[in-house]
Amino acid sequence: MPDRPIPLYDLVISPAAKRRVRDVLQSGWISSGPVVDELETTLSMSLDLAHVAAVSSATAGLELALRACGIGRGDEVIAPALTFVATVEAIRRTGATPVLVDVNPDTWTICPEEVGRAVTDSTRAILSVDYAGMPADYSELRRLARQHRLRIIADASHAIGALWNDKSLVHAVDVAVFSLHATKNLTAGEGGVVASRQPRLINAVRILARHGMTTTAHQRRRGAGAYDIPEAGLKANLSDLLAALALGQLERFSTDQNNRRRLVERYRMGLAAQARPIIMQAATPHALSGDHLMVVRLVDARRAQRDRVRERLRGEGIETGLHYRPVHTFGAYRPLAHDRLRHTALLADQFITLPLYSGLSGRAVDRVVASLGRAYERYCPAGHHRSS
After folding, report:
1. Interatomic CA distance for residues 309 and 276, integer angstroms
2. Strands of the sheet with 123-129, listed across from one edge
3. What span, in angstroms and rounded, lies between the C-alpha atoms of 157 and 211?
4. DSSP 181
5. DSSP assignment of 200-211, as one string?
6. Which segments of the chain have a pLDDT < 50?
7. Which of 174, 243, 291, 379 would give a disulfide with 36, using CB separation of 3.0 to 4.6 Å?
8. Helix (H, G, I), strand (E, B), or coil: what is residue 172?
């Protein structure tokens, strides 16, 4: 009997989430309202996220965070080239200019040394990315931000549940933006969360996310009166329907995170036992990963070899992913390319994302590790006895 396929991720909707969604459907109010308010309050308390605004996506949240920080036309924002395009897309939508820099070759997060080189008189912010759930080097980024009077906005789409100095990432940056997309550790199906210790920024995000209106439709229904629009915004509010899904999933979040951490450790032990040059992401000092993605690097492999390894795994029923094709290799962003992105280019050719989700079994992890080892041995023999 053939082995069952192992997907890259698998979403299980909890009974609590289904119940909460039914309650909202029966309430007669499914747009932004009291359930969104409840989600914001619950996230603030349970995950130490300080002040919170729930929005329609992390992409919208990044744009809103940048705008709330006063970033716009004529400004430069430094970001890593190794990220999903949404990071850079959000910068462009404010009218600011993205400046791409390389990543640390071990942690795969934005390289502070390269950030320092990229600062100009026009630089206003650093947009870090907590790649795969691993916090960036905020000790060094904060030093640079103080030195050059810059804002730090964290694209923490992968990093809900991650810690820096035993605290939420909100305590490391001006604003952190988390994703509630269907594939994320905590999901609303679609959605995002903007969090900050600065209530003024979050209030600005809330207003901008509803076209700039000073009151919500639900508040006006309850007698809030007329609204003003002091600044043009956009449509980026989260609905009660999606907030209900997130609230239900939040009840099992701690258990799911613990499961993920156990699975990552099992991957670590299995790969170490093989003694092949297949390495995992190194930890940033003082940081705990959110363990969103299980990315490994096939040291010494070329892109074609990496692709053949993926094909072999697919043939054995194991789904894999690529995170990410560098931003500057896409047509719309090629003008951002330069010659100091060496690590980004190398890593992108050697990365494979392996299955990771709370319901994955330890036996399935062992099967993935064994299959990966065999495929590496077959297609990457030149690197079999070499180290990184």
Report:
1. 14
2. 51-55, 192-196, 175-179, 151-155, 123-129, 76-80, 97-101
3. 23
4. B
5. HHHHHHHHHTBT
6. 385-388
7. 243
8. coil
Is residue 289 helix, strand or coil?
coil
Instruction: Indicate the fold that domain 15-250 takes in CATH.
Output: Aspartate Aminotransferase; domain 2 (3.40.640)
Token digits for 351? 């990365």
**Count of C-beta atoms within a 10 Å radius of residue 386:** 11
Do 170 and 48 touch, CB atoms closer than 8 A? yes
The answer to whether 324 and 203 have CB atoms below 8 angstroms apart is no
In our burial notation (b when 16+ CB lie closer than 10 A, e otherwise), range 95-113 reads ebebbbbbbbeebbbbbbe
Structure-token pair, residue 315: 């043939």
Q: Residue 220: phi, psi to the nearest 5?
A: -70, -35
What's the pLDDT score for residue 1? 54
Residue 256 buriedness (CB in 10 A; 0-12 / 13-18 / 19+): buried
Beta bridge partners of 128: 154
CA 354 – CA 290 distance, rounded (Å): 16
- Please give the angle made by the CA atoms of 141, 147 and 148, to the nearest 5 degrees: 90
The two three-digit tokens of residue 145, written as one number: 């931000």
**pLDDT tens for each residue of 116-131:** 999 999 999 999 999 9
Q: How many residues does the chain have?
A: 388
Give CB contacts under 8 A, 24+ apart, made by 229-234.
231/207, 233/207, 233/208, 233/209, 234/60, 234/63, 234/64, 234/208, 234/209
Name the residue among 43, 141, 126, 121 with its Cα closest to residue 91.
126
CATH 3.90.1150.10 fits 253-383, yes or no: yes
Six-digit token pair at 314? 């697919």
Q: What are the sequence ranges of the domains in the chain?
A: 15-250, 253-383
What's the chain's Rg over C-alpha atoms?
Answer: 21
Catalytic sites, residue numbers: 184
Residue 214, helix vs strand vs coil: coil
Q: How far are the Cα atoms of 89, 125, 329 from residue 77, in angstroms, in the given order?
A: 12, 5, 19
Residue type at position 379: Y
Q: Which two tokens stand for residue 266?
A: 């099992």
Strands 123-129 and 163-164, how do they pair?
unpaired
In whole angstroms, give the CA distance from residue 243 to residue 35. 6
Q: Which of 106, 101, 194 is nearest to 141 (CA)?
A: 101
